Please model this.
Amino acid sequence: MRIVNSSKIGREAVERLLTKKSFDEVELSPKIREANKKIFGEDLSAIELVRRIVSDVRKFGDAAVIDYTKKIDGIELDNFAVELEDVEIDSEIFASLKVAAKNIRRFHVEQLPKSWITYRGENSLLGQAVIPLERVGVYVPGGTAAYPSSVLMNIIPAKVAGVREIIMCTPNANKTVLAAAKLAGVDKIFKIGGAQAIAAMAFGTEQIPRVNKIVGPGNIFVTLAKKEVYGHCDIDMLAGPSEILIIADDTANPIYAAADLLSQAEHDPLACSILITTSQTLADKVAAQVEIQLEKLPRKEIAEASINRNGLIVVAENLDEAIDFANFSSPEHLELLTNAPFELLPKIKNAGAIFLGAYSPEPLGDYLAGPNHVLPTGGTAKFYSVLNVETFLKRTSLISYTKKDLLGAADDIIRLAQAEGLQAHAAAIRQRREIL
Model:
């Protein structure tokens, strides 16, 4: 891994290294571009390709979904639905899924907000009704690995929120993914993927119902499709490749730090793994450990590409500077491998999830602890929140004034309406005052 020292290259240089490309700045590989050219007859950018697919699915429904699934995935579809029957999987894996589901459900129940009403004046009232969305679509990628954990993380909070119907789109779902979906409480599953699945859920087709919101991770085409349909339905966030940032002092175990960096690197060649430490000695040991542990990974090729492309170790002058760099980076996952992690916690402003101490590694949050692992990436933790129960809820204001309280407020309302030049607004109040 590349090691840089902030005292030698300067703060601005470190920040440039920590600046991530936006998800829509990611360039397609020559291999993917060539494949797309064969499919579409021209060299399209990712956004051009996605816009074409979304537009066609919106216009032609199932026919476009069938056409693009055949062209892109080489699969001929007729009926999209997957039967929700019992799926036999390894009993120990299913037992672990049940433990994870229990923890996830218990954590998210604590997040449930309440509707409320407060009285104003003479029996007038104001309030807020918290209402679940009616139908949500969950996207689960096929790709290079199966993610039953993401199935639980997306469906269970929606169920806790009270969403009436949850549908799931996934290409080539394996048995563990299907078992997780049924365990979480999905209502319908459709065997389609990519941008065509996002468009189908956003606009509805003959077979796929239109949803109010789409959640779930995906590749660059899925993310761009979510951006394209936003406004026709809601989305969770625009997520990019996975990332981890570790702040460590000289008490950290280099074996643990290297293992945690690689836990994200194996996701994707575009994943980002960063260590910021106050110790040059630790930096050297972690870099060496990364090379040693890489050799043992089944997904070595992916992890190695990620480390070579986006792996970085920064030696900071002190912990305060390390925290400043972390807040600037705003990572998806932030680990504090320091002697007193809770002392640093108040200073952390931007992170999707924070893992405190050597025995709270990132995979604990990915699978079992209970907090959601659908997190903002690419620096968007500056303004995005982790997926949670409120992701699936909307708020409606409640207003009820008595005759007396409306008359008491009439002059102020009329005055403000006239100041804005909205005479009909003023008249709606004046008419009641004159009649009353």
User: Anything to note?
Assistant: The chain has a mean pLDDT of 94. The chain is about 45% helix and 15% strand. Residues 81-237 form a domain with the Rossmann fold fold (CATH 3.40.50.1980).
